[in-house]
Prior knowledge:
By secondary structure, this protein is α+β, with helices and mostly antiparallel strands. 34% of the residues lie in helices and 24% in strands. The protein has ten helices and 13 strands. The protein has a nine-stranded mixed beta sheet with strand order 5-4-6-7-1-8-13-12-11. α2 packs parallel to α6 and α7 crosses α8 (299-309). The longest helix has 24 residues, at 85-108.
Amino acid sequence: MTAPLLHAVGTALPAHRxxxxxxxxxxxxxxxxxxxxxxxLDRIYAQSAIDAxxxxxxxxxxxxxxxEADALFVGADGAFRSPSTGERNARYAREVGSLAxxxxxxxFARTRALAAGDVTHLVTVSCTGxxxxxxxxxLVDELGLPADVERTHVGFMGCFAAFPALRLARAFVAxxxxxxxxxxCVELCTLHLQPRSDVDSVLSAxxxxxxxxxxxxxxRPPVGDVRPLRLEATSTAVARSGFDEMAWTIGDHGxxxxxxxxxxxxxxxxxxxxxxxxxxxxxxxxADVPWWAVHPGGRAIVDNVARALExxxxxxxxxxxxxxxxxxxxxxxxLFVLEHLMDPARPGPAVGDAVAALAFGPGLTVDGALFRAxxxx
Length: 377
């Protein structure tokens, strides 16, 4: 089988940056909580290990001077509102294309081996909205991709969906060694904020954010790529004990996220068994892998997975940094971590080093990929 390379990853963020203390204050005003809920907000936001998150929504800026009619969550009278699913999805359709395009352009800028005209397959990934014609055709037009590029969409799979996209890319390259695959994950999670005070809703509101990431996969030799990685194996597993602990459903006022406090415990109990087949395919033990791109779904998720696999702090430092700077951007997040590891300005893999990547989603699904750093001309 032809071994595909992850040549480059590019990322993009929306314009509005909110500090975590600011968002905690916004949620307090929105919920008007009793004393118990106020303490819950304090604890969850203080322990989140997140400094800031980004959103396409500018409603919560203190100095917002935009069109009041364009506000989604704050009415003309300044009062909070819970928009319908239709309103939220209309904003998704309006915003998603430009963010996806920016991420893709960033990926192309990081390699001299590949250009937009080389792309044979486009895989788009998103679980936070629906629109057809959608982001795939927007990318074709804005990037100047070939008119006959083969398009595939991976929809509504959740935070682990970058890995099904990577498996598709691997299959395309195996069938055609000349294939060039562009993967674009774009998620606008903050469109689905919910004004609810139960623990699961507060937890979700405290971690999710917006962002986009693009990856270029091909068997072509790397040229000027940023620490290219050879994709050697993928895996998927389902921890049935966590089946009800994470879910993503469509409600009347946005998509309803279930992310319980038990998810980190389930992952700690199941991570070793879930990752074993992936490591076995590479002839490795967890201790043999110096670099891990663990999806930072939350601080406790990174902590518990690292503890379960007995990973040193340095092995998951990139995951913690992405969580701190950006929060959880669903499917795009693990690509942000890989971008961090592929950046030569930061600590990362030397040629020959193994890199293991993991992400988690409804099911409770544990998906992974095993890479190895290769030289670039």
